[in-house]
Amino acid sequence: MTLTWLRGLLRKRASRLSIVAAGIAVAVALLGSLGTFLAASKATMTKRAAAEVAVDWQVQESGDADPNAVLAAVRSAPGVRTAVPVYYGRTSGFSTTGATTQTTGPGVVLGIPDSYARTFPAELRPLAGSATGVLIVQQTAANLHALPGDTVSIGRAGLSPARVRAGGVVDLPQADSLFQKVGAPVGSQPSAPPDNVLLLPEATWHQVFDPLAKSRPDLVSTQLHVARSHALPPDPAAAYNAITAAAHNLEARTSGQAVVGDNLGAALGAAREDAAYAQVLFLFLGLPGAVLAVLLTAAVTGAGATRRRREQALLRTRGASYRQLMWLATVEAALVGVAGCLAGLAGAALVGTLAFGSARFGGTTATAVGWTTVAAAAGLAIAALTVIVPARRDARTATVAAGRLTVGRVRAPWWLRYGLDLVLLAAAGVIVVMTGNNGYQLVLAPEGVPTISVSYWAFAGPALLWVGAGLLTWRFCDLLLGRGRRVVGAVLRPLARGLSGTVASGMSRQRRALGRSIVLVALAVSFAASTAVFNASYRQQAEADALLTNGADVTVTESPGALTGPGAAGTLAAIPGVNGVEPLQHRFAYVGSDLQDLYGVRPGTITKATALQDAYFTGGTARQLMHTLATEPDSILVSAETVKDFQLSPGDLLNLRLQDGRTKRFTTVPFHYAGVVKEFPTAPKDSFFVANASYVAGRTGGDAVGAFLVDTGGRHIATVADRVRARLGPAATVTDLATTRKAVGSSLTSVDLAGLTRVELAFALLLAATAGGLVLALGLAERRRTFAIATALGGTGRQLRAFVFGEAVVLTVGGLIAGAAIGALLSRMLVTVLTGVFDPPPSALAVPWSYLIVVGAITVGALALVSAIAVRMARRPAISVLREL
Amino acid sequence: MTSADSAMVRCAQVARTFGDGAAAVVAVHEVSCEVPPGARIALTGPSGSGKSTLLHLIGGLETLTGGTITWPGLGGPPHGRAGVIGMIFQGPSLLPTLNVIENVALPLRFDGVPSATADDRAARTLDRLGIAELASRLPEELSGGQSQRVAVARAVASRPKLILADEPTGRLDHRAAGHVISVLLEAADELDAALIVSTHDAEIAARLPQRWTMSDGALSSREVHSR
Description:
The complex is a heterodimer of chains A (885) and B (227).
Chain A (H helix, E strand, L loop, with lengths): L1 H11 L1 H38 L5 E5 L5 H10 L3 E12 L2 E4 L3 E3 L3 E6 L3 H4 L5 E5 L5 E3 H7 L6 E6 L2 E7 L2 E4 L3 H4 L18 E5 H14 L4 E9 L7 H18 L4 E5 H41 L1 H13 L4 H35 L8 H33 L2 H5 L9 H4 L2 H17 L6 E2 L8 E2 L5 H23 L2 H12 L3 H10 L1 H40 L3 E5 L10 H5 L6 E12 L2 E8 L15 E2 L3 H10 L3 E4 L1 H6 L7 E7 L6 E12 L10 E5 H8 L6 E5 L5 H12 L3 E5 H8 L2 H36 L1 H9 L4 H37 L15 H26 L3 H7 L1
Parallel strand pairs in A: 5-11, 7-10, 18-23, 20-22
Antiparallel strand pairs in A: 1-12, 1-13, 2-5, 2-12, 3-4, 3-8, 6-10, 7-11, 8-9, 14-15, 16-24, 16-25, 17-18, 17-21, 17-24, 19-22, 20-23, 21-22
Helix pairs in contact in A: 1-11, 2-9, 2-11, 2-12, 2-26, 8-9, 9-12, 9-19, 9-26, 10-12, 11-12, 15-16, 16-19, 16-28, 17-18, 17-28, 18-28, 19-25, 19-26, 19-28, 19-29, 26-29, 27-30, 28-29
Chain B lengths: L8 E10 L6 E11 L4 E5 L6 H8 L7 E5 L14 E4 L11 H11 L4 H14 L15 H14 L4 E5 L7 H18 L2 E5 L3 H5 L3 E6 L2 E7 L3
Parallel strand pairs in B: 3-7, 3-8, 5-6, 6-7
Antiparallel strand pairs in B: 1-2, 1-4, 8-9
Helix pairs in contact in B: 2-3, 2-4, 3-4, 4-5
């Protein structure tokens, strides 16, 4: 019997079974793709984090340690590839003597072995001259006006200066970690690396500092710089735990004589937070897609429920037992499940190959196999859920007579009677408010703590909103198609003419099925819309972050102490490719005993070179507050912390002490508090001020500019930056947006979210197109008999079109309107709940209209195509159709 | 005007073959006949003899593979002209998403009758057939006999000149079948319409004065009985 049934299914129900298998395939492909991608992405996060670290460990010897013993212990520690000593000596200052004598304040002189640049290539970046020998760091070279070949004097406390000849100029890209206070907690680390740094060959350093070590041993110290093997566990959290444990093990084995500055651990710590966020994003953005695929499959099988019930009823009247019915349903589920899984896994491999050039999404075979298994198991579960469960329910509860029913009186479902939709929406709101109470902090990865806390609870807010809004849509459909069917009839009158009432009545009787289809289209559209808006907003804010950090397309930062006035902007403006130049003052100001950065802007023109978002300010929009600075020059924008600390109210007098350009003494300058600034181009994350540049210049007797913001119109940024560098030489630091974009982006920003959303958006488009088209097609296919009878009764092609297109119009309009509304709500909630992912938080959502228009057009196109095919098929001789059914 | 000119339908060497080559099935083979106005014809024959196919060909619902059919008494081919022929199908044929009155009014709506008028005529037809109480029910809430009576109501509501009933009592018990055929005959009489009923039930056939018998796709005999 099984084979007969199977043959019958394949012969008579091949199309329907293929569609069910396709629904399962989409879910399997989505889960397989996203899961494998997530695992692969975590592995690449670990690799990238490790690769970006210049020196894996900096081991600080304690004062009484035996250097050789510590070195031997470090070199013999598991996983250590190389360990070399690096010497730190403190100088009272550097000086050069040329046409004028240039001197600097205190600095640091490093002694490095010859092999250092080869062993730790990311630590030094040669800029000019030789890459070996005595090397001056760029900032120091600018301060000393020194070039390769110049002689530099190194001040030594209590000793005569030592003279060395500079071989080259270098940059120290990871100066923060290089000059860290090893073993000190985060809060007591130096706020910035030293301004003046010189690097000497190991032997030269000993010649210069060994005498100092004898008289002032407190001014010299030794570190061991360690390169470790980067064969790490693929998961960043596991890699972090492994490296941290290894560092602790080394400290224990040296009995505290060595303290490990774990740069690799710190990088992996950040990566594990990114990985946790990637996992959260997978849950927020990926899971709804899989749920949607399941709903789609359930809708497909549900569209054939009437037929299945009829078949079951027939089998029962012919003596089939409950067990036999279940066995046949299991055979059907196995057939579609296996076919769907195979197609889905092939689809996932294809997606991986097309999007990432690898069927394993760049991951290991083990992760690919793991997620393949999970996705396949999910596919089989979906088949069981959508085929066996309804069959079981029907077999247990439905009578043979009920099996003949095709429409039934429409009774409100239980959830609608109990208002479950409204309850879910209210619960979503409560959860979002509760999540907001802890600042939407979804991931907590405290430094030094091996466990990561991820608040999956927050996921419930958007999930409940999605489900609740879907059910509410169903309620509206039920109301409109039921009690409001006269309205529907009136709306359809241009299309259906005299049949509009009949068409509306027909739709009213099948409003449950139609409502389900509308909800499915709405959920698919909302999924596509919310994913796209989230993605676009994320990209917008990543760009804003890069712009905040760099300041503009190209930024020229003057050396400390330089007295370049705003007039130099003209020189920069003359460089080809430069659209405009905006000078930005940078000063330091005391408020009470607190020293903060102060930025002097030209409020009328600042936005010509950089973007100011409303989200950067409180107390007014960006435009309003810049207008205030322009019209009331003594007004000032301060940080929220300063407002709180000094209990400020708008208009309050705020006396700051700034250095006078003429006397070099600090003088009191009165300002009036006008608003709060949270972010500003080039400004630090902590407290700072923004004021009117002309006012500051007038009250301090100096118009020296800290930086020039150069606008290139977003074009040829790197080329323009190179031109600016060539024009200015080493006198100023030139940074560009393209480079900064790469530097500020976390691994989550730069690669992984882009990949995740690329897969997401493609699936969302597919689901939106198929949701409507497939459900409408199946619904119309189920009513082929109805259309054939209508034709036999004398219905013309135009009259049949009224039935088909009437339903398609209601489905399209209802689905798109509800989808757009739910999508808008969901986008806002997603961006709110996932605030932690954004830096800075967006003031407005970015809406990718082109993608959304494509989604809408494809949905409408799919529904129109299905309708046209249905009408064309209805033109066949009615009796031929009836005979086949 | 000749007798042929007054025929409702005229079939000349009509044939219908399903499939091709060796798998071809000849359902109707070179049938020639005329249906006069007011005719009461029982189309009989064993299952598979071609009764339904001939009926569908007469109703313009099936395409010919040979011969010609003309509908001089109906003003041309009936296909796409609602209400010209009243058709009653063998199986369930009521539209499941419409209630009884909407089903009965549907051919009228197709014919362009305003909705209020169509509903009124449908209601009167139901009343005349004694099933007015079923008006608001859905098809699946009806018994087999009730469904066929509603199908009869739908067939006659548009006052057709020709009623074709394909095994209208095939799924009904004896009593219900008798009732349906009575309703059908009364309606045909009232409308003065020609009526062809295909059936393999001798008792049903006996209630119609003319009997055409089909065998292997051919019209093997035509008899006239007194009612």
